[in-house]
Design goal:
Elements (H helix, E strand, L loop, with lengths): L2 E4 L5 E4 L1 E5 L3 H12 L3 E5 L4 H19 L5 H9 L1 E4 L10 E4 L5 H14 L5 E4 L6 H5 L8 E6 L8 E6 L5 H13 L3 E6 L6 H17 L5 H12 L5 H8 L1 H15 L8 H8 L17
Parallel strand pairs: 3-4, 3-6, 4-5, 6-7, 7-8, 9-10
Antiparallel strand pairs: 1-2, 8-9
This protein binds nicotinamide-adenine-dinucleotide (NAD).
Length: 296
């Protein structure tokens, strides 16, 4: 894949190599999506044990697609040959775009962007998959704020069509145009959105998810009944508690805290039960236990 985009200033911006930082739920899924998009992908993880796990995960996922006859075995093999997992940040040096998908914490992300800025070639686009954090504050941690924006994928990234392209006031039009073309090349539907907490989807979704927890705390109905009601009554693919578990309760808590910091809306004050579950290390599906139990 060789994506060429001409921006308003007729500068040619090319994306061939994608770097990804973070190997959690989203980083690993973004790796799969970008590999299937035809790009050369290097994923950075802090732990050396991740390489093997990631490679196996990817092979399993591609095998399932081959079985369902939506991917040819030869294409799967070719995609895997374009994939590399590393613990060395310097392996991202020549990436045309780096997508950060680490823990939802502003200071940690700012430090990472500073590091990437000092390391990557001068025209590398640096993007964050943050769910709510102010992208401008991440951008100004670098000396290239015009090349920094948000690329917000949805979970599960392989299936969800939407990608919010978040545009802080510091970003250049050419960066946004390049990113929109890149996202489109992945078979996703980009929506350009202002750099406001929660962007579109989480700003609307999280007050609802939080209200479901308060409803549970008031004993209005059981968790299962609330989930089933939203599926059968509103056509949700899954109820609020299953969705919170899928997103991750630590990430959900961070999202609500950021939304509340910016909006001060009572609907975004995190429900106490959410805090308690996170404190107990019950982080949702990824820790096999959250609102629901997912077995060993
Ligand atoms: N889970 C979702 O539904 C979802 C959807 C869209 C966007 N996001 C965003 O994607 C990002 C990652 O979320 P996730 O769900 O993949 O989380 P996760 O908990 O599955 O993974 C977090 C990753 O961050 C790494 N990490 C933790 N602390 C770190 C540190 N100090 N320095 C560097 N790396 C560190 C972990 O090793 C792990 O690889 C977050 O910004 C989140 O808001 C999440």
């Amino acid at each position: 894949m060789n994506l060429s985009v001409r921006d308003a200033n007729l500068d040619l911006m090319q994306i061939e190599k994608v770097g990804i930082v973070g190997s959690g739920i989203m980083g690993s899924a973004i790796a799969e999506v970008t590999l299937l998009g035809g790009y050369k992908v290097t994923l950075h993880s802090r732990q050396s044990t991740t390489a093997h796990v990631m490679m196996q995960q990817l092979k399993d996922s591609f095998s399932k697609m081959v079985k369902r006859e939506i991917l040819l075995q030869s294409k799967a093999n070719e995609a895997i040959s374009r994939f590399e997992v590393t613990t060395e940040m310097r392996d991202l040096i020549d990436s045309d775009i780096v997508i950060e998908s680490i823990i939802e914490d502003l200071e940690t992300k700012r430090e990472l962007f500073q590091r990437l800025d000092g390391l990557c070639k001068v025209d590398t686009i640096l993007a964050t998959n943050t769910s709510t954090l102010p992208v401008v504050e991440i951008a100004v941690a670098t000396k290239r704020p015009e090349l920094v924006c948000g690329i917000h994928f949805f979970n599960p990234a392989a299936r969800m069509k939407l990608v919010e392209v978040v545009t802080p006031i510091t970003v250049a039009t050419s960066t946004v145009d390049t990113v929109i073309s890149f996202v489109t090349s992945l078979g996703k539907e980009p929506v350009k959105v202002k750099d406001e907490a929660g962007f579109i989807v989480n700003a609307l979704l999280f007050p609802l998810l939080n209200s479901a927890i308060y409803m549970l705390e008031r004993h209005v109905a059981s968790m299962e009944e609330i989930d089933r009601s939203m599926q059968l009554g509103c056509g949700f693919p899954m109820g609020p508690f299953r969705l919170l578990d899928l997103i991750g309760l630590d990430t959900s808590l961070k999202i609500l805290e950021t939304l509340h910091f910016e909006s001060r809306s009572p609907s975004t004050v995190p429900a106490p039960t959410l805090r308690r579950l996170v404190a107990a290390g019950r982080l949702g599906k990824k820790s096999r236990c959250g609102f629901y139990d997912y077995g060993p």
